[in-house]
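Long-time lurker, finally posting.

We've been working with GNAT superfamily N-acetyltransferase (Streptosporangium sandarakinum) and I want a structural starting point before designing mutants. I don't trust myself to interpret raw outputs, so I'm hoping someone here can both generate the structure tokens and explain anything notable. Sequence follows.
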Amino acid sequence: MTHRDATGQGSAMDLLERIGSVVLPVGIALYALLYLGVQQMYGIFNISPEQAGIDQATMFGRLVGSLVLLILTGSLVLGALVAVCWLVNRATLGHAARLARAVRARPWAAATLGAVWCGATYWGFLGYLDLDEGAGLASIVLVAAVIGTVSFLVPFRLLRRRPTGRAGMRVVIAAFTGIGLGFALIGQLEADAEALAATGRGSIVLSLAGFQDQWVVAVTPAKGTPLYGGTPLLLLGEHEGTYAFYDCARRETFRRPMGATVLQGIELEPDHEGFTCGEPAPAKNAAAERTPAEDASAGNGSPRTGSAKTGSAERGPMERGPVRTGPGRIATPAPSAGQGD
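Top reply, 14 upvotes:
Generated this for you. Predicted structure of GNAT superfamily N-acetyltransferase:
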């Protein structure tokens, strides 16, 4: 603990430096691994991001947007953890805070915790290599302890001797945390991309990574004939005057010139509940969308509200006037039943 910390004279710049020493390594590691994750994601469809029209500037913008969303989510989780720690400290009458300070004051204890944490971040890398199948919690803890003890325990103990070493240890732990999260995201992106290629159903993780879940019906402009019988196709992107499509029914990726293809039925992130690859796009029910006026005009004439005939033949008994029965005589019709006094 420095003199400024002990006297409570730490400035806002000191706080920003400490936050930056943690957030910046995490962000850089996540960005680098998300870049690899996007390549793996498009590799499921047998193309590269560049072949889908995603250049470096576009990918940079998408990945920065993904990092912002991750920071927002991480802030919620971190804030909840801080609140829980505060409640635990209040419930234990300050003993939890004193225990944490005691652990930090002991170099071997702090080095052991940091080493085990960095060893645990390797589990994401092992999952990326498909080496974690069938592993349980005990296996994860054992692997983390072995990797941390062999690779990080002694270096972290040596770093705890000086303040600069402790700051360096904090940066290393933050960087390995970002690497572990990045490999975990790569595995999730790859799994969701495989599910999209097999079933045509996207996920929120793909959307957060900037993947364009857009489905279209490709039509030839000359004859207006839909390709593949009007089956919706996944539009992966466009590059050098060609569209890149993926047909999940045939599990194939193909390209078509933009001048020889017309896109219809464009849907961005559609609701694919009950969707089956290979089904043609549902046609709109024109009869259900017509108004009553259109139904009337489509018939043989205007809608009838009654008979067009007029005259006494259409009148009821109460509507008939006097009837002339002969010269000079006018007979009044008798009232119908129920109309008398």
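Before you design anything, note these points.
Residues 212-268 form a domain with the SH3 type barrels. fold (CATH 2.30.30).
Confidence is low (pLDDT under 50) at residues 284-341.
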